[in-house]
Structure formats: structure tokens, C-alpha cells
Amino acid sequence: MEHPYGYIKDNKVFLKGFLGKPDREIGEVKEDEASTIAYFEDRFEQIKEKVEKLKTDIQENQNKGSFLMKLIHLRDSLYASDALGDFVPLIEELNQQENYLNEIIQSNRAKNLEIKKALIQEAEALKDDTDWKQTTEAFKDLKMRWIKTGPVEKEIQEEIEAQFNDAVQHFFENRRHYYEGMALQAEENIKVYEALVVQAREAHDLPDAKMAFEISKRIQKEWKAAGKVPAEKRQPLWDEFSRLNNRIFSRYKRTLNPGPQMHPREVMKKVETLTEEIKKLASKDTSPELIQRAKEIQQEWRKLPPRKPKDANLLARSFQFFSDVVFEKAFLDKLIHNKYSNFDGKSPQEQLQIQTALLKDLLHRDQTEYETAQDNSGNFRVQTGDFEIMMKKKLFGLKRKVDVKNHILKQLSQK
Which terms are listed as keywords in the entry (predicted)? Predict the structure, then answer.
């Protein structure tokens, strides 16, 4: 059976070649030839509707350039579509639309270049100004305007960015030296931290994850360069600042590696299942088979999306705690067998006494280390947030080691 744009041969449906492409098999006859032809013609009508919808979207939206990749993908898909119809006009139409979008993009980039050159001139005029407060506000405004301005041609992007950043950096370096030399009061420095927190909030609310990440990197550098303030005033600001930047980084990381896509209910169910299973393992005596299963459970946990529902937070902490219990019991068992070669030959009561004594000794060491670290952490007066984060993580880790050993000790006492 013949068709203007295809034919049926040996019970198979073929699309005639176009634009240098050979004839291509697109399906087979299911019931009869007429209904089969109608089916593939309907598919072509659906493709035409997609093309028309894309054209309408381009015309009705202000940000037309954002449709370029969608257009290219749609046009490429036409060459492999299983449908009967005249694809050439559709492809030509999309080619015209691509030229139209490229012209808009080129025009926009030319306008962006003019705007960014003007911003560079403003930055150059301000970079040696010593009215620190007013000029700092002016540079904040300049940087936000720079961020909101779209890209320029890739060939000059790096050069333009460097010119602007050099002027900005020049001013902030001068300002930093001035504040250091004049040793301004701590309350003035507090304003710098507060302004950085405001910038962190603004960056956190930006829809563009990469842009927010770039701002986050910059303001973290500025935070480290800011002056001294009393710890009790700085800490609340740091807590919010670090929390916002951590969220910005997590969001940016997810854009690079989004991980498996799961519905929140599926994630919660999996979290509950894995936590319950590791909890059951933590209540049993250690064995090679138990440890192997615990490792498999941890591997399953790592496959879960990094961003979990809020309801999973408590379960996640429980999962970590009982995982530590499982492997701490395995470590204790290995330590005992290395120290007592005839341990398995001893009575259950003797075994329990040995386990309890050794565990109490390890617990005492951990408790002492934790208390010492607590005391020492209050004696440090540092300016970097990285050090404070490190100390918090260390204290949290030591506290969990103590809690894990207390939990195992309680299990032993109930035997």
C-alpha cells in the first residue's frame, strides 16, 4: 500500500527518506493497512501540534532564548519519529525559529556587554573611594546589578569578569586594610557580619543554584576577612550564615549529581525499613554474617536521595547511632578475642565480666577525651568559621562514641 510519505511492504510500515535520509521502518501492520496508516498519520499530527505549541511558547514568553535547547531537541527528534507525514516543512520551520532565537540571543548578549562595560566603569571610578560605608553599599548594588545582567559572548566572558572583579577586589582590599589599621570597634564589624548574613539570605532565595553558589563562595571569603567581634554576638550570626551557605552548597551539589529520583513517601518507607533493620541488628550479638548484612544496609542507605523529607531527620540520626552500635560491638569482640585467646572457652558469666570491664575502660577514655575537648573548645578565640565547624563536629563525634558505649553497656547489663 502506497502513501505520499511512506508505504507498506511485507507487512511493515516504512517512512520515505527525506533531506538525504534513507527510507526507514517505523512499525508494522497490526490489524489492517488502512487503520495502520491512520495511526501513523495521527502520530504525525501530534508532532505538528508540538511544533506549533513550541512556536506559540516562544512568541508568548519574554525569555525567548530559554527555548533554544528545547527547539534543538525537538528538531533532532523529528528525524527518528515513527509517524507518516511531511517532516521537511516542520524542520524548516524549526530552523527559522532557531535563527530567530539566535538573533535575539546575540542581540541580548550585545546589550549585556554594554551594560557590563558601564558597570566596570562605575566600579573603576569607585575603587579608590575611602567613604567606606557609602561606597560599600554602592559596590553591593553594583554586584547585584552585575549578577542580574545576563551573559556575554563566551570568548570575552572571562576578560569582562576579571575586569569587574579586579575593581571590586581592589576596593574591598583597601577597605580591609583600613579597618585593620584603624582597629574599629567591634560593633562596626558586627554590621559587616549582618550584611553578609543578609546577602546569604538573598543568595539562598535566588532560583539559580549556580549563581547562589558563586555568591556563597564570595561572601564566605568576605566573612573570613571581617574583623573581630565578641563571640556571644558573632555566634548567632555565624549559625544562620553557615546554615544558609550549607543549604546553598547542598542545592548546588544536587544540580551536579541529582541522584536517584524517589517519591518522598518511598524515601520515608525505605528510611523506616533500613532504620528498623539496623536497630534489630544492633540488639543482637555480633557475627561475620551480621556485620556483612549491616554493610549491605549502609550501602542501601547511601543510594537514597541526599535530600530527605524533614520527617526522616530523627530516623536518620537513629540509623547512624545503631550503625555505630553494630560496628562498635564488632570492634569490641575483635579486641577481646585478640586479648583472650581462650575467650570462647570461658563460661557465659566470665565472658560477660570481661566484656563489661573492657567496655567500661574504653568508655572512660572516651568520656575523658570528650570532657577535655569541651574544656579546650571554650579557650580558643578564632576568627574562622571552619575551625568552629571542625570543633562542633569533633565534639558531636566524641559525644556519640560515649552514647554508643553506654548503650552497649546497658545491653550487657540486661543479659
Answer: Coiled coil
